[in-house]
Amino acid sequence: xxxxxxxxxxxxxxxAGVVVIEVVNPATEEVLGTVRAGTAGDVDTAVTRAVTAxxxxxxxxxxxRLAVVRAVVAGLRARADELASTMTAEMGTxxxxxxxxxxPNPVGIAEGIEAALAGGYFDGEEIGNSLxxxxxxxxxxxxxxxxxxxxxxxxxxxxALAAGNTVVLKPSELAPFTADLLASVLAGAGVPDGVFSLxxxxxxxxGEALAVHPMVDMVSFTGSTRAGRRVxxxxxxxxKRVALELGGKSANVVLDDADLARxxxxxxxxxxxxxGQACSAWTRLLVPADRHDEALEAAVAAAAKxxxxxxxxxxxxxxxxxxxxxxxxxxxxxxxxVEEGAELALGGPDAPTSRGFHVAPTVFGQVRPDMTIAQExxxxxxxxxxxxxxxxxxxxxxxxxxxxxxxxxxxADPDRALAVARRLRTGQVDxxxxxxxxxxxxxxxxQSGNGxxxxxxxxxxxxxxxxxxx
Length: 470
What we know:
Layout: E1 20-24, E2 31-36, H1 40-58, H2 62-78, H3 80-91, H4 95-102, H5 104-118, E3 125-127, E4 130-136, E5 139-143, H6 149-162, E6 166-170, H7 176-188, E7 196-198, H8 203-212, E8 218-222, H9 225-236, E9 241-245, E10 251-254, H10 260-272, E11 284-288, H11 292-303, H12 324-339, E12 343-346, E13 362-365, H13 372-375, E14 382-388, H14 391-398, E15 407-410, H15 414-423, E16 430-431, E17 449-450, H16 455-460, E18 463-469
Parallel strand pairs: 5-6, 5-8, 6-7, 8-9, 10-11, 10-15, 11-14, 13-14, 15-16
Antiparallel strand pairs: 1-2, 3-4, 4-18, 9-17, 12-13
Helix pairs in contact: 1-8, 2-5, 2-7, 3-4, 3-7, 5-6, 8-9, 10-11
């Protein structure tokens, strides 16, 4: 366990009597180091410290917390190169993607919280004879994933602290070193002792101990839908607040008047970003039936440029899966697609490299909406091209999964695109490749979770409302 001010060195040896977790570089399969696996007892210690620290931290002024957030932003900027290279080493994201997205996005998220505090978010609201205030929830447990490790930690920890909560963070055991760097940034920003604690470990041990702990007031979780169900179930006994950002199976709806070549090129880039390991990736490409073959050909041409390689090299666009287990999971879905009759147009289950957990960029055509690869989250560089009859059919297919996290619409007519976007049952929709907004609410419908992150909407998740009648 790493408690405040006690960040442990990255050791690569085992110590007698201590359970450690090996951190493996997915591109080389070499062990980078180890972290000590936390226990339920470690969680209790961290939560107790958070409870003790809460009264003083929650009583700090907005100006004091704003100064801390500004210092966090400066700290992230100052350590941008180190953060990018660390994420590349421990979870395989291409270093260029890390420098352009994996670090800048968290900086933008923190800046959004900074703007909210500076803009008077906590000033209170007058409704008739009532003064309505936003106050901190209490002790927040943040459980974060490996695919966007810094982004998801910042999206939880920074707004939670800014709202006056204390935080216990359990990062993914696959990307723990990025968490150590964030802890160092928070220390440098002046976060007091006990206000933030970091406990490394596995979900079944540390994550579940946080979810059931009676002194934890809120759990904010990002991960698979399966794990999210487990967290919500465990947290229900103590009726704590639960925010869940879960899986997705997002559709890229290319309407019949769209620039098909442009839509497909942007769509492939989105589907394969971060090695295909993004919950909001547009993994389903929906195209008019009479242009399916043209779209498939364009998708194959675009996807072929994503040659698996060393993620530490600036030119690499597609790195490895995060682990051998994740690679095998993705390959299993590719085999399932072939078995169910989808047209394998590019790639396949065979390993494209002799070393590393790489998966070949894969494109399927003539995919039916009821196929497994069109319904379940694969989390790898696999794109499914689905034909549709008309606009209503496209919307029906887009809404035909249990998920509702992201999506896209391409059309030559912005008003038509907006009308279709409104019909998609999903938390975010990008029109014609619009830019990602780190201050707009991010979250999903249905089994993609509940709650929102980023900006004022994300800040609200970590607050309670109090009405004072006068």
